[in-house]
Amino acid sequence: MVTVGIVACSLSLGLLCWAVLARTDPAGHRVVSNLGLGFADAEDGGAEGSAGLLAPVPASHLVRRLTPPGSIRRLERLLARAGRPPAWPMERLMGAKLLLAPITAILAVLYMSSNSGAMSLMIGIACTVVVYFLPELLLHSKGQERSKAIALELADTLDQMTIAVEAGLGFDSAMAKAASNGKGPLGQELVRTLQDIQVGMSRKEAYEALAERAAVPDLRKFIRAIIQADKYGIAIADVLRTQASEMRIKRRQRAEEKAMQIPVKVIFPLMLCILPVLFIVLLGPAAMDMMKAFRH
Q1: What is the mean pLDDT of residues 264-270?
Q2: Which of 98, 142, 152, 165 is deepest in the core (most CB within 10 A)?
Q3: How far is Cα 237 from Cα 164, in angstroms, rounded to an integer?
Q4: CA quadruple 17, 23, 28, 29: dihedral positive or negative?
Q5: Is 80 exceeded by the pLDDT of residue 17?
Q6: Rg (CA), the chain
């Protein structure tokens, strides 16, 4: 067990040294230098204030240095899909990954030193791996819940957009109207899409980014239909009406599918929890009477 602890500590120190001494991304350096070009000729006080604003926080900078680039990209993607919760900033997630996993590994080594065996080793490794990927698991669960909420809101939102377009509004105005009326995650994503268009992103790229963030098959299909309608000049009101009707049918079919799954899901609790107790209550007195009869 001492050998296992030494090997684990050596690997941890090696990875730590590699992360600290590894070169940073040159593209990031270029971006930071480009952002600071306009502050070189400013006054001394303004330059100091600007440099203070542009300088990264040491703790967050160190956390980013220690986190592998692949983990950062994965966390960024999962954060976008989860709606970027205010309580889960990127620095906090990366810090949790860097702190919880070594602490769990140390506790696992201490546990294995007192309880030797292959089972203890497997439990320690499994706990360390699960704790390291815990932020990703939480974000994935949050993203799935958000995607389900978007899928439920999609049909009603398309109905509102259809009414707005038929009343004479443009598609962007109808989207803004539906986003202002909506209170769920779909309204937030529509607002984000409109902001992307306003800052210069093309409509196709903004719509595709919306489909990528939401990760809802029905919304992705609707985005493809909107892109095709914009490309070939099809009336947007007809596309919205058709898509809204199809989304309502799919929502009703999903509800019927879940209703049909209820009897199958109830079978196992019924057989494991309810039927044994029922048999004991019904057959228990008869079994006791039979045992008394056989004794006499």
Answers
A1: 86
A2: 165
A3: 9
A4: positive
A5: no
A6: 29
Tokens 């899909």 belong to residue: 81
> Residue 2: pLDDT above 80?
no
**Token pair for 157:** 């939102």
Type of residue at 140: H
Q: Measured between alpha carbons, how far is 1 from 123 in angstroms, rounded to an integer?
A: 14
Q: Are 210 and 222 in contact (CB under 8 A)?
A: no
List the single range of 10-24, 141-155, 217-231, 273-287 with lowest mean pLDDT.
10-24
Where is pLDDT greater, at 138 or 44? 138
Q: Which residue has the tokens 């949050």?
A: 142
The answer for residues whose C-beta is within 8 angstroms of residue 105's C-beta and 6 or more apart is 8, 12, 124, 128
- What's 40's DSSP letter? T
DSSP letter (8 states) at residue 24? P
Strands of 98-163, DSSP E? none
- Tokens standing for residue 84: 């970027």
**DSSP secondary structure of 190-222:** HHHHHHHHHTT--HHHHHHHHHHHH--HHHHHH
| Amino acid at site 285 | P
Cβ-in-10-Å burial (0-12, 13-18, 19+) of 219 comes to buried
- Token representation of residue 236: 């947007």
DSSP state of 1: -
Q: What is the pTM of this model?
A: 0.67
